[in-house]
Each structure stands twice: as C-alpha cells, then as structure tokens.
Amino acid sequence: MDTARLFRSGRSQAVRLPKEYRFAGTEVVVQHFGNG
Description:
This protein is mainly beta. It has one domain. It has no helices and two strands. It has strands at 5-9, 12-16. The chain has a two-stranded antiparallel ribbon with strand order 1-2. β1 (5-9) and β2 (12-16) form a beta hairpin. The two termini are 18 Å apart. The relative contact order is 0.22. The model has no long low-confidence stretch (mean pLDDT 93).
C-alpha cells in the first residue's frame, strides 16, 4: 500500500500523490468515506 501526504495550502487541504498515482488534467471527482 502506498501513502499520499496531506498538507495545508492557504486555507485549503491538499493531497500530494505519489508520482505513479498522478492524474492528467486539472480536476478530479472525490467522494468522502467514513470519518476521515
């Protein structure tokens, strides 16, 4: 299992993905699971 890093960018939270998981384009759809 690989790990992505969470960080703050101004007042937003962002996710830094490992290189092999990066997406083409500028937007992705996200879905919230559980309490995380």
